[in-house]
Known about the structure:
Blueprint: E1 2-9, H1 17-27, E2 31-35, H2 46-51, E3 56-60, E4 68-72, E5 76-80, E6 92-97, E7 102-107, H3 121-140, E8 147-152, H4 176-188, E9 192-193, H5 194-198, E10 208-209, H6 216-219, E11 222-223, E12 226-230, H7 232-235, E13 238-243, E14 259-264
Parallel strand pairs: 1-2, 7-8
Antiparallel strand pairs: 1-14, 2-4, 3-4, 5-6, 6-7, 8-12, 9-12, 10-11, 13-14
Helix pairs in contact: 3-4
The protein binds one DNA strand through loops.
Amino acid sequence: MAITIATWNINSVRLRIGIVEQFLAAESPDVLCLQEIKTIDDSFPRKALIEAGYPHLAIAGQKGYHGVAIASKLPFKTVEKDDWVAMGDARHLRVRFEDGLLLDNFYIPAGGDEPDPVANPKFDHKLKFLREMVAWGERRRASEKRAIVVGDFNVAPLEHDVWSHKKLLDVVSHTPIETNLLGEVQAAHDWVDAVRHFVPPSEKLYSWWSYRAADWNAADKGRRLDHIWVTPDLAGGLVSTRTLREARGWEKPSDHVPVMLTLEV
DNA sequence: ATGGTAGTCGCACTA
């Protein structure tokens, strides 16, 4: 069976439920993983998603900040959320589907402006979060052979995941300490970068453009912060990926666009 | 080198 999974940092799901519905109607993924829903669970727009054909909802919300959710056509067998770095932040959800397939949805901390863990506690938090993910991968690697991890990782790991490798080497999201650490996370579970499986690393590819640019499209100073990784056992079933650049130009857009993967499971 | 925009039960914080 082929399934399609989408991941999208929506930057307030209540404000943007209209473009979520538009996206689901147009693309009809089986599963949508959202980050930065910016709402408590009770205010999550459940009805809109159920009516759009996504009756299975897992929500990890918090007031004002962060928050992740998974909306699915397929039922879940289990739902879990981990408290990473013991911060109490809503940055993670895990669901297992009925066939055993495992899906983790992450919103990794952005890390603030200064790439110094001593001067900047938010950067320290981000590094600790990534280190916990390394240990998590090592723990599960032997037992979880059919797993997918998606989300806003807030790291653009490759040279062509940013508009200028040289200019961004000291900019949080592309510093060597972060890209090396994300490499350790990837190696810890042998994750395959499903998007770069199809788009060669020599080709520029972005999933985020700052709101602060006067003309995001013309300047095109993007970064690839949103990712979909699969275990080696699933990599043989990879069918296609899409990164919906046009969504950045929609009415009242998120600063991130949806990233999608279709695979045989 | 700076400041630019967006969202959230605001008067600050996160991104």
